[in-house]
Amino acid sequence: MSDQEKENLTINVRNEEIEEFIDTYLKENTPQHLNQLVVKLIASRILVPASMNQQKKPVPCLLPGPENTSYFPLYTSKEHIPAKPKSELVLNLPFLAANHMVEQHIEQIDGIAINPFTQNLVFKRALVEQIAEAEKKRQAGGQKKKVELTPEQYFAFERKEFEFGHFPKKFFEQGKEMIDKLFEEKEQYIDELFESCYQHPRMYPYLTEEFSVMPLNLSEDMLLVQIGMPEQGMEIPSCYRIYLSWDAAQEKGRYFTIERTKEDGKWLVGEMEADLKHTGHGEIPAGGAEMQKVVELLEIK
User: How many Å apart are CA 238 and CA 234, to the nearest integer?
Assistant: First the structure.
């Protein structure tokens, strides 16, 4: 078999039914259509452009996204792959293998882009992780199981992904720029930011008035913003309030969380680092002196 014949065999992947499901979902992005699409995808093979590294091993190419994000592109057939720039090679992989690659690279990849130059469907990291977790449970149980989310489960993982993922990541990238926006635009800004991170924008459940934003000047160099989060969808973990601080002298920000715990009478004071590592700073009585605790942690002289 010639090299050309081998190449043609490798990229001879057809997924017409999946492409139809993608079109349907893009027109009407409901959880039901998403579940149908994911069930088809996890049983399929897809194409991934790649290059060769110095060790002569294939490395999938990534697509740059807005605001320093990057996405793992995959294609349902060769017709969706752009002619230029031409990749060194095209990998024929199970969809779950590609999903696993993204799930394992937490910091470098923000999600999957399916047929990015034609249909352009994005699976954000929260959904990638949900698919990976469901597949692990299916394999552990030794039985077939559909990846389906109730609306409550969907709201819960979207909220967790925002409060402990998207929001702190964007804050540590933007720093003072985000603080300024919150000082100026307040509730409108946080509401629009949260909605922009939703996998299903039509399902976004919150209104601007469900948020509260209170900017404070604690000292000449220290700014603090208290952000009240909606009560709707307050699962564990999720935040009653989030505090963003900015130290102008050190040009350093900190991200604090006031989190719901299993005990109704107690809240947890937490902190997210720039690498998205979570640290607990102890519990306080529900409705207690949370701001005082945050100020103590800031060690303002």
Answer: 6
- Of the candidates 65, 44, 13, the one whose C-alpha atom is nearest the C-alpha of residue 173 is 65
Cα 281 from Cα 256, distance rounded (Å): 9
The conformation of residue 230, written as its DSSP 8-state character, comes to P
Token code pair at residue 204 = 């976004």
64-107 per-position pLDDT tens digit: 887 788 899 999 999 999 888 888 888 888 899 899 888 887 66
Report which of 131, 149, 166 is spatially closest to residue 239, judged by C-alpha positions: 166
C-alpha closest to that of 222 among 247, 244, 242: 247
Among the listed residues 80, 88, 94, 78, the one whose alpha carbon sits nearest the alpha carbon of residue 46: 94
Would the CA dihedral through 149, 152, 154, 160 be positive or negative?
A: negative
- The two structure tokens encoding residue 26: 């893009």
Cβ contact 245:253 at 8 Å: yes
